[in-house]
């Protein structure tokens, strides 16, 4: 007789339920087991974002991030969590060539990490890929607006939605990804009225998750290191909920002083013989 192991972890469908019930969706990024564990009770989903290339590795953009890097960090986040849905970013070059390439990459992520969904950047031109993945059992979160993997074609990390043409394009992107079966769409760096128009558009059934977009979204996400005040610089849309950089610097300065002056380790930090 077979037995199903019941997991208490949230799934993509639970986010859709949150939207239907009008309950805000809470999300943050995490790349490590320890930070993910702290977020777990508070977040509906945790994104293992390809921002890890810039945040953890000091890269200038997310472009050099590989599928292997995403898988290793997603495994860490899965180990550190028990409740939140874990969503993993598909890095640049792992899904754009064809629907088949996207499926093989996504399947690797889900099989090797146990995460519950993937995220990919791009609008209407990826609708076909989103449909192909969802039909084959891969829950997909879309990402439109300021899409960092397109930094070279966008001409920089630029806020999107200025002008009627751009507005119409973004609305069409959201509708196309939603119609293709995405359970959620990240709206990043989109001017307020356009982001609001998408978030309140009855033709967009996917849950909308804002970052540098409107409070009308069904949920919000921030990069953890940005909101904790650990990043050297953070975009305008980030609210600082902490000042970790100062705390870490203060602690390290005190440690260095105490070691230099022979005050650490003290007796209580040493082992007496038996
Ligand atoms: O990579 C990332 O952290 C992201 C968020 C900014 C949404 O895509």
Automatic annotation (TrEMBL):
3-methyl-2-oxobutanoate binds at residues 50-51, 89, 119. Its cofactor is Mg(2+). The active site is at residue 188. GO terms for cellular component: cytoplasm. Mg(2+) binds at residues 50, 89, 121. The keyword Methyltransferase applies. One of its GO terms (molecular function) is methyltransferase activity. It holds the Pfam family Pantoate_transf. Binds 1 Mg(2+) ion per subunit. It catalyses: (6R)-5,10-methylene-5,6,7,8-tetrahydrofolate + 3-methyl-2-oxobutanoate + H2O = 2-dehydropantoate + (6S)-5,6,7,8-tetrahydrofolate. GO terms for biological process: methylation; pantothenate biosynthetic process. Pathway: Cofactor biosynthesis; (R)-pantothenate biosynthesis; (R)-pantoate from 3-methyl-2-oxobutanoate: step 1/2. This is 3-methyl-2-oxobutanoate hydroxymethyltransferase. It comes from Methylorubrum salsuginis. The lineage of its organism: Bacteria, Pseudomonadati, Pseudomonadota, Alphaproteobacteria, Hyphomicrobiales.
């Amino acid at each position: 007789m077979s037995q199903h192991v019941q997991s208490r972890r949230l799934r993509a469908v639970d986010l859709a339920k949150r939207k239907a019930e009008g309950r805000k969706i809470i999300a943050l990024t995490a790349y490590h087991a320890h930070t993910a564990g702290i977020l777990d009770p508070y977040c509906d989903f945790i994104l293992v974002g390809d921002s890890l290339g810039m945040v953890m590795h000091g890269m200038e953009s997310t472009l050099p991030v590989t599928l292997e890097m995403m898988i290793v960090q997603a495994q860490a986040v899965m180990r550190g969590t028990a409740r939140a849905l874990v969503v993993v970013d598909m890095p640049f070059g792992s899904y754009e060539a064809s629907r088949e390439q996207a499926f093989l990459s996504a399947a690797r992520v889900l099989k090797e990490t146990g995460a519950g969904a993937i995220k990919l950047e791009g609008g209407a031109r990826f609708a076909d890929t989103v449909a192909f993945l969802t039909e084959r059992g891969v829950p997909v979160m879309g990402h439109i607006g300021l899409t960092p993997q397109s930094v070279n074609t966008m001409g920089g990390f630029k806020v999107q939605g200025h002008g009627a043409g751009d507005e119409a394009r973004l609305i069409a992107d959201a509708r196309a990804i939603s119609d293709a079966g995405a359970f959620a769409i990240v709206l990043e760096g989109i001017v307020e009225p356009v982001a609001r128009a998408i978030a309140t558009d009855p033709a967009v059934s996917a849950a909308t998750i804002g970052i540098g977009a409107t409070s009308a979204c069904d949920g919000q996400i921030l990069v953890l290191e940005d909101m904790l005040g650990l990043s050297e610089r953070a975009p305008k849309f980030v609210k600082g909920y902490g000042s970790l950089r100062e705390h870490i610097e203060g602690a390290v300065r005190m440690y260095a002083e105490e070691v230099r002056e022979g005050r650490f380790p003290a007796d209580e930090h040493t082992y007496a013989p038996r």
